[in-house]
């Protein structure tokens, strides 16, 4: 599909997402065609979305630095992810096809990092965003005033489900602790927390719903989301 040369000057901010968990900033912008989308509608043909992945600025002690609005500060651009919608696009993804989108990732020097023939992994994960959202994860943020979000902050012994991931994805607790999973509602997608060894299963959690589990036997409990088993995995360690 080619590197979208003019995106830095010609595209509109779609949203910024501060990933506090992995110290990344996701800056997403859209060409005029994509930005003309109406809330809840599929994107028109000719839509291009660019997602710049940045490493966030840290102070010498390793703490994240925030600007006056409490947002992370972009320091190093690592990858430029592009998705583009055209009539007939996406056929090669076969069973993983997402409507008519195709995906490519570039390095900051514009060389190709993930060529189209390897981008089925992109399609596989974006399927989770669902056809209802035209396979774009946070289209609703474009229609907010701030066009900004960050990973949910969680209390101790809590796990949030958001952006097709568990936060944190590794948690260690003392035996007898009650752990709470909450579907943060940010990605608007249903999830589950299902132990590999059947020790617990939240069942389907709709956006906003939560589920608590108390583990009374020490050990390691790998778990996954039954709806996104390839993308969402986590581990609970229960110690004496
Ligand atoms: Cu899930």
Primary descriptors:
about 240 residues; mainly beta; Chalcone isomerase; Immunoglobulin-like; 2 domains; seven-stranded mixed sheet; four-stranded mixed sheet; globular; binds copper (II) ion
What can you tell me about this protein's structure?
By secondary structure, this protein is mostly beta strands. It folds into two domains: 143 residues, Cytochrome P460 (Chalcone isomerase, 3-Layer(bba) Sandwich), CATH 3.50.70.20; 88 residues, Sandwich (Immunoglobulin-like). The protein is built from three helices and 15 strands. The strands form three sheets. A seven-stranded mixed β-sheet has the order 6-5-4-3-2-1-7. Strand 5 and strand 6 form a beta hairpin. The longest helix is centred in the middle third of the chain and has 7 residues. The mean pLDDT is 94. The site of copper (II) ion has 5 residues, from loops. Copper (II) ion binds next to loops.
Put the structure in a nutshell.
The chain is mainly beta. Helix content is 6%, strand content 36%. It has two domains: 7-149, Chalcone isomerase (3-Layer(bba) Sandwich); 152-239, Sandwich (Immunoglobulin-like), CATH 2.60.40.420.
């Amino acid at each position: 599909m080619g590197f979208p040369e003019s995106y830095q000057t010609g595209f509109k901010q779609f949203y910024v997402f501060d990933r506090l968990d992995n110290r990344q900033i996701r800056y997403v912008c859209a060409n005029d065609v994509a930005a003309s989308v109406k809330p809840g509608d599929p994107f028109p043909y000719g839509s291009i979305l660019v997602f710049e992945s940045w490493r966030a600025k840290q102070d010498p002690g390793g703490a994240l630095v925030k600007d006056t609005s409490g947002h992370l500060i972009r320091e190093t651009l690592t990858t430029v992810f592009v998705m583009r919608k055209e009539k007939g696009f996406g056929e090669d993804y076969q069973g993983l096809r997402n409507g008519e989108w195709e995906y490519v990732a570039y390095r900051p020097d514009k060389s190709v990092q993930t060529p189209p023939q390897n981008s089925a992994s992109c399609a596989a994960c974006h399927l989770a965003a669902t056809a209802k959202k035209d396979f774009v994860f946070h289209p609703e943020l474009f229609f907010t005033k701030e066009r900004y979000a960050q990973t949910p902050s969680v209390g101790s012994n809590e796990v949030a489900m958001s952006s097709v991931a568990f936060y944190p994805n590794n948690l260690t607790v003392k035996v007898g602790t009650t752990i709470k999973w909450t579907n943060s509602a940010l990605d608007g997608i249903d999830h589950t927390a299902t132990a590999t060894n059947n020790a617990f299963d939240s069942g389907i959690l709709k956006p906003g719903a939560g589920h608590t589990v108390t583990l009374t036997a020490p050990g390691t409990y790998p778990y996954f989301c039954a709806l996104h088993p390839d993308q969402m995995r986590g581990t609970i360690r229960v110690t004496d």
